[in-house]
Amino acid sequence: GRGAGPAGMRLAAGVRERVAAVHGGAELSERLRLYDSWAACYEQDVAALEYRAPHLAAASLAFAFPAPPAGARLLDVACGTGLVARELHRRGFRCLHGVDGSAGMLERARSTGLYRQLRRCVLGREPLPAPAEHYDAVTVVGALGEGQVPSTAVPELLRVTKPGGFLCLTTRSNPSNLRYKAELEAALEGLERQGAWQKVLAQEVECWEKATSEEESTQGTGYIPGVVYIYRKCPVPRPGEG
């Protein structure tokens, strides 16, 4: 198609630079500033990238969820502009709380009207602003990656989840994130061995989003792969309890 020509590349140049910047080696404070300034064009950029993670994560969580979701309290970690909330809302989730490290992103999320509560929190640096066993579900979509939320923050996600509650996590499987992904999976498996949670799903997805460089594109498709994980916190309540 014609879109793949120079015009397509021109459109992508700014997108490529912004994505590279937030995934680069910048200090956290600098990266949060980049997210603040990216907030205004973030949604059109991820649309250009055909970023499918919010849709895939919400669909997976809704599929795993046993109860009608309307009454479930859910925490959307690194909520950004509210892309995940929009997908969850479409699937019947109504009680949504969000946290993000970027004030600019939170402002956009607030304007969607989809969240009952929004707080600023830099996960990895500070605890989540929630009591223990508070949420029926916790999502972290797109923020588990090199230079973003460290894999050491996973127990903090578990802390705020109710026993029997669900955690939905995503990461990318592109070459520059493989070391992080291995670390993350070691942390996930370690918690499973300890009996902290049970794996419900690990779904590898070939076309997660468009690659922003040739090196990142696997099998020359122009896309990078990703994965959705769903875990259920133990002890899982028996039918008739809870």
UniProtKB/TrEMBL annotation:
Xref: Gene3D superfamilies: Vaccinia Virus protein VP39
| Xref: InterPro entries | Methyltransf_11, SAM-dependent_MTases_sf
Q: What is this protein called?
A: MET27 protein
Which gene is the coding source of this polypeptide chain? Mettl27
Listed Pfam families: Methyltransf_11
User: What is the organism lineage in this UniProt record?
Assistant: Eukaryota, Metazoa, Chordata, Craniata, Vertebrata
Extract the PANTHER family matched here. Answer: METHYLTRANSFERASE, METHYLTRANSFERASE-LIKE PROTEIN 27
Q: Which GO terms describe its molecular function?
A: S-adenosylmethionine-dependent methyltransferase activity
In terms of SUPFAM superfamilies, this protein maps to: S-adenosyl-L-methionine-dependent methyltransferases
Organism for this UniProt entry: Podargus strigoides
* Methyltransferase type domain residues: 75-168
